[in-house]
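Protocol step 4 of 6: structure prediction from sequence.
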Amino acid sequence: MGPKRPFLYLTIAILFYFVLATDENKEQSHSTSVAGMEKLLQLEVKFLEGLSEYANELEKRLSVVRGALTQMQAESEKAVNQTEYYLSSPLKAFSLIRRMHQDWIDWKNYVDEPIGWALVAFMEKHTAELPTKNDLQDACIAMQRLKDVYNLKVQDMARGLLNGKQYDASLNALDTYELGQYFHKQQQYQLAREFFSETSNWLMNHTLPTPIAADRANMLYLFAAALVKINYYSVARPILNLAMNLANDNLYDILLKLDADIESLSQEEHAIVPETETTQSFYKTGCRGQFDSPSKFYCQYKFGPSPFLRLAPLKMELVLLDPLIVVYYDVMSPREIYELQAYARPLLKRCAVYVDGKSVAQKSRTSKGAWINKKHSNLTLSIARRLEDMTDLTLKDSSEMQILNYGLGGHYAPHWDYFNKSSESQKDDRIATVLFYFAKVEQGGATVFPRLKQAFSPVPGMAVFWFNLHDDGTPDNRTLHAACPVLFGSKWVMTQWIEERPQIYARPCLKRH
């Protein structure tokens, strides 16, 4: 393989997007769960080990590989030592998805010579485990969701400033370039320009941990040419100027021609349209923590009707009477939470929504879940009894409990839990919902009721209970609710939907007048 081959690969990746050939039927939806992305980090650790061995064998390229390896290992060690915290950052999570989709393929091509066959073979073996093009697109959509819901600025996002808090994380040039490409395809040219500008700013002072960084002038040329190709001339100009200062004679002539092209084509650049938020829905208001706090809450201990509650009453807070919304505190211990999470982790799968009676994966719900039967263990039997004590309802015929983990920008768009059983095919409906929280989320991840102007931030051991139906069995559309995108953190919850018909004696169906 000739020395120019790695540069050809990157040229293709930057200008046309590198498409990873995998079996779409094995789509793993990596970005939809922090727990799911842990496997990617573990795989990246193995890739780094293989790359380190390759670097030791290939003395001629040692300076190139070692220079990149130092940066990449430092990031990997930081992630492994604090895996969940690391993946809680949307910036780190997005970078992981993008580099596992693109950068490692670039490395595979770079070492695709006899001396690197061991690493190539290992990577080929694990190709199906890597994020697909769809995974990368989902990650871009998640970043857009975070920006829109929390009204974040592009510059702040790129530099790790999220909602006023600075994190030890940032996006590199390839990350911001990927996002710029995404917004460009969505015809959001101003947003694309802002991300491309961050690409340009980053390249002025940093070197990428990829094989193309061996020739910085050529790397800058590739980025400038790619930006010129899609008419972002003003963003390409600083990159091109730096490349001209660093280039040798052969490359300098090519750069001069590109510079002339910029001069003649600059009038075709996309017009700048300032981005403003014209409206703010109650959903976004709630997610941003901007609902007015009620002047009073009604708190008490629940001592009955179960005899057990006389010995161990439940801490409850009555939030609303109509519709009824109650918050319970300390209803699940850390040990119980740990046991449920341990059960769910290996079983997590992409969550779906019901459409025309079928479960379908949609972008309106991005998380992974696992079902657990109430008879699974003594713990789940205990929780089932606790649920009946909390709600004064029976769990007979109700669905299994669902444990959920949210990933990069994980959310559930505004929805109702009831099915609206006006359809004859729907035999029963969900009269009530209980939502348990397993973990604190540093930013985002609240449950909001836009029409009721109520928002609940995750607190470990807390549970929210509400009725989805009126007392005559008709849907209560005021219970529209949503899971706000997780801005920073790992959100774990467990849901129990309670069926209506078995409640004939606990909550009789009454006529409305």
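Step 5 (inspection) to follow. The two ends are 82 Å apart (CA to CA).
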